[in-house]
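User: Structure tokens for both sequences below?

Assistant:
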Amino acid sequence: MTNPDAVFASLGVGALLASVLPRVLAGRPLSLPLIFLLCGIGVYLLPLPLPLPAIDPVADRMVTEHVTEVVVIISLMGAGLALNRPVGWRRWRVTWRLLGITMPLTFLITACLAWWLLDWPPAAALLLGAVLSPTDPVLASEVRVGEPTDDEHDEDEARFALTSEAGLNDGLAFPLTYAAVGLAAVAGTGWSTGWVGSWAAQDVAYKCAVGVLGGLLVGRLLGWLFFRARSTSLRLSQHREGFVALGATFLSFGLTELAGGYGFLAVFVTACAIRAAERAHGYHNVLHDFIEQVERLLTAAVLFLLGAFIASGGLSALTWQGAVAGVAVLLVVRPLSGWLGLLRAPLGKRERWVVAAYGVRGIGSLYYLAYALGHHGFGVPARELWSVVVFTVLVSVVLHGVTAGPVITRLDRLRGIHTP
């Protein structure tokens, strides 16, 4: 039986560690997500009868979906608020390449790998490609831009590319997920093209358009309210209350979802629109700092629970083929797709490799898998699907968590930037 007192004590320790660890680990071959993942594994493997709850995202699919959903949308708001560079075709040309070339290539190659190596039905193969194609905005903190500043050039191209890519492609992974759901609904474990027309019109065109427009409308309205409202009581930038960022996040997400659009996409667009309303105002730092603290706490909790699931047998359904597929996505598919997408991009060779290699897989992948499994079956046992995705996230957290700090620090030194 779970002891509530033990849970409270664990939450207290976790919150304090989440506050201290980012500064302690800065530039070192460790990361906060990795520490909490290992803590979850270690605590649940202790040979002691600890009063801790059983963790099973497969059985508790709906809880998993909503918890990971909240973490992702908060992270998307933080990513959008951190970006200094105004949105534009030329300013964001590296981002557009990552979204238009790298992400589709990652999706297609991963799907083909699952179909060939794992012998999964087409719908399940497409689902694996969809959930492992986006760069995760939650776990990419080691390679994200820092706090907002008033200088649009105050962010290097590698950090900017990975942050903007993570902010947008977590919303654009929805059409890919719906492609897998649509195929499963029409053809079961077979193949059909009967779903393509409605998918392109509804899940791609309409929902993406509503997501962007909804995010712009909410962002501009809030930007006016924050910085230009005539009444000082309504001009929230005068009061410097950080929790307003949560209100902006949930409002944008909820209204857009009610209108039938992609809330993930809307939240990131809303954050960018709020930045554009008054780019040099210090209130952006207040909003960003608050949302980053909330994100850090939630990330620590989710990664601890993921470690608990792994320690409790979450990888028991993993086959050697599934393990090879997960490692291949991280070491071959994403780097290759990233390199191809960034050919002739305005990046140095080292920066190109960093951007190509650091497509972190994480909590967004867990969300999309939980969401898809709530809509249809895919001809593959749910625990097998979960084992491949969780293993891939585990390897990503370890691999990227160990290497990101030193790699980014070295990249800064080679560019002549001092890092503390």
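Moving on to the next sequence.
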Amino acid sequence: MPFDTHRIPTADGEANAFAAFPDGGGRHPGVLMYPDGFGIRPVIREMARELASYGYYVLVPNPFHRHGPAPVVDLPEHIGEEARPALMARLMPMIESLTVERVRGDADAYLRFLTAQPEVAPGPAAVTGYCIGGLLAVRTAVAYPERVAALAAFHAPVGADGPDALAGLTARVHFGHAESDLTPEALSELNRTLEAAGIAHSSEIYPGTVHGFTMADTDAFDPAGLKRHWEHLLPLLRGAPAEG
């Protein structure tokens, strides 16, 4: 699977990025993929390659580029619970620095870069993200509705900016929540917000999962949850109607 590394100009300096795309030339639908709070690393690159194998050009930017190129902190090969507190203590200030305004400015740069690549087909992109990257994906889709046709977010605080922000969505949506992140009551409230706004969506709790379930290099990893993630993400990208 071909891949490239890039440096994307933004208003606050260059963001390093990883891109994966299919063999054989041609032009492919573009997908902007935001990593989780641990950033670009082997497991994220592998997920981007897998998504690219289904016929997509996948761009993964470093959302913490203001703090240096990825990886912005040294990560163990496996991020166990014993390592997590110290890592999060270093990463949380970077995560908290991602204001709505900064995310929107970066997203504009990422989408412009993505759609300008010769391997990317014309038309709106899709955007997906994990953990805090899911919130960045939501903010991107809200800010640029004419440039984003599909939005997916997994184990992500998708409602962190309030229901009014979600009401601005026009993209097709899938939210896959960890069982440890959202109660059934909170899920019902979120889905009522999406329904009231007329957003084509599916939004569900993945049974038996905890926060971070898609990430194979963490203790939270759940193979069944990751499989379910692909079973929702791929139809969404192909334009299938949202269900659920």
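User: Anything stand out in the second?

Assistant: The radius of gyration is 17 Å.
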